[in-house]
Write a structure and sequence with these properties.
The chain contains three helices and seven strands, in the order H-H-H-E-E-E-E-E-E-E. By secondary structure, it is of the alpha+beta class. Among the domains are: about 35 residues, no CATH class; about 110 residues, Immunoglobulin-like (Sandwich), CATH 2.60.40. A four-stranded mixed beta sheet has the order 2-7-6-4, with no helix packed on it. Strands 1-3-5 form a three-stranded antiparallel beta sheet, with no helix packed on it. Strand 6 and strand 7 form a beta hairpin. Helix 1 packs antiparallel against helix 2. The longest helix has about 30 residues.
Length: about 250
């Protein structure tokens, strides 16, 4: 672009010179100052060149300085998704189950009395009357075990009802018939005569009430003893005490 403009200026300058020559008589040859013409042309060329460079510099400066459309304070702030706020403000905590502390008296669960019934017959243990579990008995010693029981069925216990051996150590027990009638809701005492084994150890027997045909029913009645080792009781050693004769 710059070269084209300089060429145009030179052409115009040449035309100006030629037109000046054509307007005078042939006899009057004008005196041309070539140095002046070149100086003027070069000055014009340099002026145009400087103007062009200044314009390009201004355009470059304007392009290098963009205009800030918004103020620095209007920065875009990233807004966290709703799940972030929920996680920070409402964290999901694990559910903790606190077991209640057991207080008061602890009871030993017992079997459902209805499950021990046989037809209309049933028995509930009320109390161990004697020989508590773990009682120490001498080898070969005879003893009687007694239980307090209740007829919690719907039938009468009649004369031929008796204790029936259910398992464990029999210890020679042979109970006899009930010998009386126990109506429902009443209690009585049942006993069996036993004989402790001769060997030391722990022995346990299980008994149940039975009908005249031997069908067992009701709660299990337990007898448990410990047979101790026999001990030899030392006999006192006789001493010879001198007898002092007495004289009349």
């Amino acid at each position: 672009m710059l070269i084209k403009r300089c060429a145009v200026l030179l052409i115009l300058l040449a035309c100006l010179v030629l037109s000046s020559c054509g307007g005078q008589a042939a006899t009057e040859a004008p005196t041309l100052d070539v140095n002046a013409i070149m100086t003027a042309g070069v000055g014009t060329f340099m002026a145009n060149l400087l103007q062009t460079q200044t314009a390009q510099a201004l355009l470059t400066a304007n392009a290098a300085s963009p205009t800030i459309a918004s103020s620095p304070t209007s920065l875009i702030t990233a807004t966290p998704p709703p799940t972030w706020t929920q996680a920070v403000l409402n964290p999901i905590l694990p559910t903790v189950f606190i077991l209640p502390t057991a207080t008061g008296t602890q009871y030993t669960p017992t079997a459902n009395p209805a499950l021990s019934a046989s037809g209309c017959n049933n028995l509930q243990l009320i109390l161990d009357m004697n020989v508590p579990s773990g009682s120490v008995v001498r080898p070969g010693e005879s003893f009687t075990k007694t239980w307090k029981v209740e007829n919690n069925g719907t039938c009468n216990w009649v004369y031929l009802y008796r204790l029936v051996f259910a398992g464990g150590d029999r210890m020679g027990g042979e109970p006899s018939g009930l010998g009386k009638v126990i109506v429902p809701g009443k209690w009585t005492q049942l006993s069996v005569n036993l004989l402790a084994p001769s060997k030391a150890g722990t022995y346990t027997g299980y008994w149940r009430m039975g009908t005249q045909t031997g069908t067992p029913f009701g709660s299990t009645l337990t007898v448990s003893i410990v047979v101790g080792s026999p001990t030899n009781t030392p006999q006192p050693t006789p001493t010879n005490t001198p007898v002092t004769p007495s004289y009349p």
